[in-house]
Structures are given as structure tokens and as C-alpha cells.
Design brief:
Belongs to the NDUFAF7 family. By secondary structure, the protein is α/β, with parallel strands linked by helices. The chain contains eight helices and nine strands.
């Protein structure tokens, strides 16, 4: 990734104590590349690298260190017992207060029906004459994988379930462990399921191209992908690339 700027860069301090954000001239010489595992040090880094490090760095990343980053409900929500939206929101408020987790994914809140809907679509459109192969990127607590495998076990021909492969590509070690525990609640699933602990965005982890058709499931992934940030003061000002720099606390 080239780090030489062709237009003025705008630095955003880590501690937003000052209302002013200063702009800087382009670097006179190319700087060494900043990779996503770098913590913000004395040199500024791109927003995409700051986000990746903050979320996924093995030593301090949010998903790497927080075992309760994604919640797991003990039982399904009985929506037929909730009297409308207000009751649903109150129910959500209660379960968040009772659980030390950051959030519950939609597939968790609407289990098993959310995953069953995905599984039904797969069975309806897949070529079942070849072994079914499913990849899930960022499998959370494993609820989606278990729900899909449950549905296929109960509704598909026996040979489809017996010959299927379900692969979770998970960057977080704590979530990878939780996924195996969740799917393992049905023992027969484990011989068909595995977790690959790696970054799905790295091409090298995928190996050689395979001709076998497969399904790729990505739930709540796009909003957690690193991205760039550009800024322009007004409609006639040039676009500037945003970098992040450390600011000492005052």
C-alpha cells in the first residue's frame, strides 16, 4: 500500500479533545507502509489500518480480547408472547441488562428462524447432486451454523447432510471456540464442521482455486470491515485522505 499522499492529508487525533483538526502538506518522501497489525505510535496511520487493528489485532483487538463481544441467548425469543414493538424493545433492554455482552446479532435474536430461512434457500437453489459446501465468514457465536445444520439434518435427504461440509472462517480465537461449543451441542454436526482461525481478507488463506460449487455466508460483516475515510471542507475544496495520529492527553 503506497503511503505517499498526492493531496493534503487530514489527521484525526485519537483523543478528540480539541475542536480543531489541522491539515498537513504531503510527505516529501514515501513513508514505510503501515500494516493493520500496527498500533498507533509516533507516526500516523490510515483509518482502515486503525479500524483493523482496533477490532482484530491479536494482542488488543476488540473481537480478539472480548469473550463477550457477541451474545448467545439461552433460548429462543417467544415472539407470540410479546404484545407489539414496545414489548419487544423492553424485552431486549432486559436481556442486555442480564448479559454482559456488547450485542446480540439478528441471527441470535431471531433464532432458529433466521438461520432456517437461509438453509431453506440453500436447499431450494443448490445442486444437491454434489456435496454441499458452506463457508461462513465471521460466524459470531455459531448460532447461524448450528441453525443451518439443524435444518438440513431434519429436512434434507440424509445423504446431503452426511456429505456436507461447513467451514467457519473466524479471526477471533474466543469466538472460534464459542462456535465449536455451540455447533457441538449436536454431536453429529462436529464431523461436518470446522473453524479456520484466520483473516478471511487475506488471499493466502484460501489456497488454490477449487471448482466445487459452494455457498458463502457473511452476516454482520460489511459493517466490521476496515475502510478509508476522505474529507472535503466544501464542494470546491479538494478531497483529503484521513489519517489517525496519537495525541497526548492534556
Amino acid at each position: 500500500m503506497a503511503t505517499r499522499l498526492l493531496s493534503p492529508a487530514r489527521y484525526v487525533p485519537l483523543l478528540f479533545r480539541s475542536p480543531k483538526v489541522a491539515s498537513f502538506q504531503p510527505f516529501a518522501h514515501p513513508s514505510p507502509p503501515f500494516f493493520s497489525t500496527h498500533i498507533v505510535g509516533d507516526s500516523p496511520i490510515l483509518v482502515r489500518d486503525f479500524i483493523h487493528s482496533a477490532l482484530y489485532d491479536p494482542s488488543h483487538g476488540y473481537f480478539s480480547q472480548r469473550s463477550g463481544s457477541v451474545g448467545l441467548l439461552e433460548r429462543s425469543i417467544r415472539f407470540n408472547q410479546l404484545a407489539g414493538r414496545k414489548a419487544y424493545m423492553q424485552y431486549l433492554d432486559n436481556i442486555y441488562k442480564q448479559n454482559d455482552v456488547s450485542w446480540f446479532t439478528p441471527v441470535e435474536l431471531f433464532k432458529p428462524w433466521y438461520a432456517h430461512g437461509i438453509a431453506e434457500a440453500i436447499l431450494r437453489t443448490a445442486n444437491l447432486s454434489v456435496p454441499l459446501k458452506i463457508y461462513e465468514i465471521g460466524g459470531g457465536s455459531g448460532t447461524c451454523a448450528k441453525g443451518i445444520m439443524d435444518y438440513i439434518m431434519l429436512n434434507a435427504p440424509t445423504r446431503v447432510y452426511n456429505n456436507m461440509t461447513y467451514i467457519s472462517v473466524e479471526i477471533s480465537p474466543s469466538l472460534a471456540k464459542k462456535q465449536i461449543e455451540t455447533v457441538g451441542e449436536v454431536r453429529s454436526h462436529l464431523s461436518k464442521y470446522r473453524v479456520e482461525h484466520r483473516d478471511a481478507a487475506h488471499r493466502s488463506g484460501w489456497g488454490d482455486v477449487e471448482q466445487q460449487p459452494c455457498w458463502v455466508i457473511m452476516l454482520e460483516v460489511l459493517d466490521n470491515l476496515p475502510h478509508d475515510l476522505v474529507y472535503s471542507e466544501n464542494q470546491v475544496s479538494p478531497w483529503m485522505e484521513v489519517w489517525v495520529e496519537k495525541q497526548q492527553a492534556r
